[in-house]
Amino acid sequence: MNLKTKERVLIRPGGHWWKFSKYRISADGYIGPARNAELVQYDPWKLWMRPATEGPERAWVKLINMVGAKFDRSRARFTPTLLRRRNKELLDWCAEYGLLGLLLHRTRSVTFAAESGNASTGQRSYSWDGGEWYEARSINKKKHRKIRCVKPSAIISPLFGHGQSEQEPLIRTWADYFPTIPASARESYQYPPPTSDEFWRLYCEPVDEFLIAAHDFKKAIEEVIKLRAAAAGKEKLGGWFDQIAQRFSSKEFRQSIEDVKAMVPDTLRYDARTDLQALLSAVSVGFDMDLNGQCMMNWPSRSLLGVLAMMVTLDLTNEGIYPYECARRGCGNFTISVRSNAKYCSRKCKNTVTKRKSAEKKKAQALRRKRVGKKKKGK
To answer: Which spans in 38-79 are helix H?
Structure first.
């Protein structure tokens, strides 16, 4: 019997995330909840499920457009003229969707210090498995004996790329996301369970790390979209592609430009695929069933960044949706459309390009008439 997957499994993206009603940027460069802000749990997939022609933009589109093309990654900041406006956009984006969850995205498991500093009271550890955080607690039932406690640590993986996860003390990475905890107590502090209300009220993200992650996320999407457009013959890879080919075709590598140009797209495809795949490692495949017995598939994630990566993957693989970069020179914004031949992110950009072409055409016609006039005078 030949079963069609679409008829047997209903794919309904599911999952939840947390956000505060208002955020602020502290003097030491952290973004966190503002005073008296309300914590809300919501489903980020609800807006994504709307058709591309309805409702607001995708969350991932707003994120990468917020970073823009003028972000200085080496200094992890914007140019001074854009800083004030970008900070407001950053706070507004977080109030709408929440923090990216960079720490939870990188954490595979974490073990806290023994409670109250007494080994007989137990020790908590948390690990991500099957779309949920699970708690393991070692408790000594015999009070006259002490249990053997391990040193507080966390298994941390790289945010991008397929690097090896490392076990490290809490003060190395984990504690950096809790700036309100005194430095002397960060190793022995009893941190709240991940994703609990107490956890989110203490959790903050460094602004520079937030922006760098958004910038690298944008670069990964940009490479995929450009390579896909080039493969379809809609766009040339541009000068940066020729520069890479020229560098690898030098005498040192002993490769011709033609050979290198055939090799570079494979390398770029691997890099783009690696970055997105690393972000998808935070996403799990889930199963759900409603009250009517309808079976559904969902994708719980331990970070909002993983949710955004899954949304991008679904948008890129959906035949009816076409993510693209605006064709107006100097814009750099990304958007999605239901039309495969869409070029501009807004009517404003389209009108700007039309006016620019019209002005260039008039200028060229004026120069042509001027040259013709000079020739007639010369005769």
So the answer is: 45-48, 59-67
For residues 301 and 313, the answer to whether their CB atoms sit within 8 Å is no
Are 85 and 134 contacting, i.e. CB atoms less than 8 angstroms apart?
Answer: no
Q: What is the CA radius of gyration of the chain?
A: 26
Token couple for 134: 């699970």
Range in 26-30, 61-65, 182-186, 359-363 the model is least confident about: 359-363
* Partners of 71 in beta bridges: 78
Could you tell me the domains of the chain? Answer: 16-101+207-337 (1.10.3300), 106-202 (no CATH)
pLDDT digits 0-9 by tens, 266-318: 555 656 677 788 888 888 887 777 778 777 778 889 999 999 999 888 888 87
pTM: 0.78
Instruction: With beta carbons less than 8 A apart as the criterion, state whether 214 and 63 touch.
Output: yes
Give the 3-state secondary structure of 31-52.
Answer: EEECCCCCEEEECCHHHHCCCC
Token pair of 72 as six digits: 């200085």
What is the share, in percent, of the chain residues with pLDDT greater than 70?
A: 72
26 three-state secondary structure: coil
Q: Give the number of C-alpha atoms closer than 13 A to the C-alpha of residue 372, restricted to the C-beta side.
A: 6
d(CA 230, CA 324): 12
Element holding 282 (H helix, E strand): none
Mean pLDDT of 10-22: 74
Between 286 and 193, the higher pLDDT residue: 193
Q: Is residue 9's pLDDT more than 60?
A: no
Select the more confidently predicted residue: 332 or 307: 307
In DSSP terms, 130 is beta-bridged to none
